Amino acid sequence: MNSFPWLKAWRRWLPWLVLVVAALVLPIVLPPFRLNLLGRFLSLGIVALGIDLIWGYTGLLSLGQGIFFALGGYALGMHLQLGSLAPGQLPEFFGLYGVKSLPGFWQPFTSPLFTFFAIWIVPALVAGLLGYLVFRNRIKGVYFSILTQAALLVFFNFFNGQQKLINGTNGLKTDTAKVFGDLVGSDLVQKELFWLTVVLVVAAWWLCRWLTKGRFGDVLVAIRDDEPRLRFTGYNTTSYKTLVFAVAGALAGISGALYTVQSGIVSPQFMAVPFSIEMVIWVAVGGRGTLIGAVLGAVLINFAKSLVSEQLPETWLFIQGGLFLLVVTALPDGLLGWWWRREVKP
Amino acid sequence: MLSAPLQKTSFRLLSGATALAASLSLVACGGEKKSEGGAFDGEVKVGILHSRSGTMAISENTVAEAELMAIDEINKAGGVLVDGKHLKIVPVEEDGASDWPTFAEKSKKLIDQDKVAVVFGGWTSASRKAMLPVYEAKDHFLYYPIQYEGQECSKNIFYSGATPNQQAEPAVQWLLKNKGKDFFLVGSDYVYPRTANTIMKEQLKAEGGKVVGEDYLPLGNTEVAPIIAKIKQALPKGGVIVNTLNGDSNVAFFKQMKAAGITPANGYSIMSFSIAEEEIAAIGPEYLEGTYAAWNFFQSLDTPASKKFTADFKAKYGEKRVTSDPAEAAYAMVYLWAKGAEKANSVDDNKVRDALVGVSFDAPEGKVTVEPNHHISKLVLIGEVQKDGMFKILENKGIVKPIAWNQFVPETKGYSCDWTQKRPDAGKFKM
Amino acid sequence: MNLFYDTLFNGLAIGSVLVLAALGLAVVFGLMGVINMAHGELMMLGAYTTFVVQNVFKAVLPESVFPIYILVAIPFAFLVSGLAGLLLEKTVVRRLYGRPLETLLATWGVSLILQQFVRSVSSAFAIGLLLAVAIGLFLPRLLVRVQLAPRWAGLKGTISWISAGLVGIGVASLLGEERSLDQPWFSARNLDVTAPSWLRGSIELGGVTMPTARLFIIALTILALWGVTWFLQKSVWGIRIRAVTQNRSMSDCLGIPTETVDALTFLIGSGLAGVAGVAVTLLGSVGPNLGGNYIVDCFMVVVLGGVGKLLGTVLAALGIGVISYVVGSGSLLLIWPAMPAGLNELITFFATTSMAKVLVFALIVLFLQVRPAGLFPPKGRMVEA
Fold first, then answer.
1. Which CATH code, of 1.20.140, 1.10.3470, 2.60.120, 2.40.128, is assigned to A5-341?
2. B242 Cβ partners below 8 Å, 6+ apart?
């Protein structure tokens, strides 16, 4: 029957080809602005991988990944704010609100090493704590989703309202900070960041694949498909869920940090309610349960958004709304699931 | 060789795709206006970057419309005359989507991708603060049309809205003189209200007023009952309320203030800094009648230039529309840039920037001039909202020069900004 | 004592808005286990209906009847939002039955579309939309005989909807050349909905100022609660709804038309959102973002209140209302002025509307540690499916 083996292989490998081309060829041909966009969208692929892990595999739909995304971004943003200051100086915005000394929780971020760990450990801890409190009580399904959304709104309110601690709505800017003597916003550093993003996307993908391939992955899928049964067989599902939620949080933090330095700002807008739901749709469009699909979805949709908003900004919400409807009704397995689906003879 | 059904499918797909492309191009063509005449010798691209979607679209659409109107008028009059050539201004519109990082992203796009000569854009201070590093890093030029909190003086931004000494400070002086000494400050929770209130508190300290309370509401929040309770506790018998709320919160604020009896009739003087004719129409004049506002332009300003501006705006965008201070500032800003370019005899942003200082324009509000600190001198007006949603002008303080670094706030007292001076700290130096 | 009544009244006032807004959501969630993310946008439709009714009264009817426009708007808003909800149920929610997370996402998509719809809708747009809907419904019939490869077959509906949409856009943009058809009906601006003068004042009672608008909303909430309770307890369909809520498959076996029950519940829940929409025009702005301002608060109410009992919803909403007011206005400081400095600082720190939200959420999460299923958990022993 299978008279086109090459066709089948082609179907299998095309998405990978697209990504490899995107990562290797586009940096040469794209103008710096588009390349910068590509880098940012690739970094969003990391948070999408995390969502795929908790939603696609474990069946936990979090609408609050923006929290961890922003926490990672803020950790790096704070470090960069402090890094380019002379000793004893304060970041400029503190002057606007009459703050005379650095708030205590800023202090450790002067250390690059601490920041390096904070970018992913802080979001992981917050996710772990939130997850533990929620999963412990077997809150799940829709309840879990709207609780995470409420948590998101609360974090948004907190960061948005605390001008004196974290510069509120304005967020922290990174373009004028310096790393190794170069401006973060300069083309050279941006290009380096692009490659760093590529490397980290691959690493994150590998991590997720490693987690989902083995027994751990089987447990996750079992939680998604029938949690009570798994519990009755003696598995402590709470700790599995908490752990995977924390991993997704860490991934979101890394993603947020990369996104921040490539867009030049971290602000509470990262915790806006619509943005976190958008993240879910990247995964849904790319294909739940296909890790590479999450990355592809993030990149494709964001490029589409960027292009549409350049041409016809008013239509983007229609298109986005239509996408939500489309993926849940007609394409439940996303683009990749559809692409890779076995042809059944009519 | 493809099997027959597959071939059929591909055919259908192909025809489907063709139809799709055809309808898409139809849409694209439908949206474009035919260009008129060929009297130009070239083009100059300018960026227009405002929120066309999201919370701020309500306000920013008008500003973008005023800018487009100015561009149309300049083009009709022959474009920008540079180097003996008539250049047509071609606007490239981008959507900031009420999202500060998007403003930064789109700025990069306009500068790197579209290579625009200048960008007109922004509304909230947060969006300006997000864009600022982009323009400074790329040494490009942003024109920002909204009244703001001051305490900033960038080489790469040109501010055509009021600084505090052209809006908030005269308003507070007027209130102290005519309305009372006890002030309650209400604002949205972001940089403009926070900073403006810091300045006002210092000013009140210096001029004998008293702040009895202040409170902030997240942008877009509409639950104002706790704030109203605080106002009632702090000012049981009437007093002055200075309102720097932005956007949707204003509607809730005024509706519920009225319901709670905090009204001009009961001895409360309410002064708003973000309520212009546009917002009055959306909130309903019934709720605002008798409250005050300080601006640099009112639609009711009785001069020929003002009347012409309003008439043109209505002719272009509809009889029901109103003009307001931000629209006027945006309109004047485009003209100032064009005049600067003609003076510099170039559209190169660095040359225009140097030439711009000292350029004047007969704006709807009167003659405005670009000062060395990249702000402009403006007319200062205080008005009272009338039944018809227009302002009655209570006081006209004449043209006031802008001060970027506030002289009431201890941290910036004595500092100045002058970009005509060739010194490294021209943006902020001790006088 | 005054302060106590003042706090109580304001807390009740805030809470009753929450009750009204969350009521419809809770009814639907209780029955179908579905969270309707477009609930806020259905409220928005109710508010826009109020705007239209107001303008009709202004334009057509004598001035003397203008003050009652708000009363007339209530049934209209119920109808408009209810029908919109019914349409949503018939076209989207029904297909996703038993997949609550997908329903969540799909209704979010609908909410985005509705938001942009009220911004963009103009005569040209409406004509284009009607045309697109007509084609979208009609095209699949034409294509019935078309055989597609299985990979594409599932997408036939989607493809025909997309092409119908493109035709609609094309027609709309052609018509849009005509200026009179291109004027947006509402545009992205906020709309001016002015309460009639009897709802703009306040009543003094025992030293407490009670805005009439707030009293009106409290009355409306009580009325809505009474209506819903009566309907669920006494009417035939209400009893059917309760039966399906308790045990869907058994009700189905006993001959209760569960599909009709679902549709009816969705209609009522959405209609209640419309009524809530009328109420909030008295308090705040009417614009495309109206829904987003309330929706997350409604979720908190539903989470705290639990499923199946309206009393849970009511208590949760009132509780959240009172706590946010007490914290947000800092009235604790007034009750106990001699508070120790540390505590004082803490309370001042939370005494803004945004920080009150933070605290309320923290309290809800803490509460869920004790009562994971909300205030009134459903009785019985079962493994959650």
1. 1.10.3470
2. B171, B172, B175, B183, B184, B185, B186, B197, B200, B271, B272, B273
Q: What chains are in contact with A, requiring at least 3 Cβ pairs below 8 Å?
A: B, C
Q: Which amino acid is at C137?
A: L
Residues of B within an 8 Å Cβ radius of A: 31, 52-53, 94-95, 97, 99-101, 104-105, 108-109, 112-113, 125-126, 129-130, 132-134, 136-137, 151, 189-191, 194-195, 198, 216, 218-219, 411
- Across the interface, do B194 and A96 touch by the CB < 8 Å criterion? yes
Residue A147: list chain C partners with CB under 8 A. Answer: 303, 365, 368
| Block residue for tokens 């041909």 | A29
Residue C120 in contact with partner chain B when CB distance is under 8 A: no
Beta carbons of B419 and B306 less than 8 angstroms apart: no
Beta-bridge partners for C265: none
What are the structural domain ranges in chain C?
2-121+184-384
Q: Report the alpha-carbon distance of residue B149 to residue B131 in Å, rounded.
A: 16
Q: Three-class SS string for A127-174?
A: HHHHHHHHHCCCCCHHHHHHHHHHHHHHHHHHHHHCHHHHCHHHCEEC
pLDDT on residue C1: 58
pLDDT digits (tens, 9 = 90+) for B131-173: 998 898 888 989 999 999 888 899 999 999 999 999 999 999 9
- Rounded to two decimals, the ipTM of the complex is 0.88
Query: Which residue has tokens 């130009």?
Result: B40
pTM of the model: 0.87
Reference C289, options B225, B218, A328, B191; nearest CA is B218
pLDDT tens profile A111-164: 889 999 999 999 999 999 999 998 988 887 888 898 899 899 889 988 887 877
Point out the residues of chain B with pLDDT beneath 50: 1-37
CATH 1.10.287 fits C2-121+184-384, yes or no: no
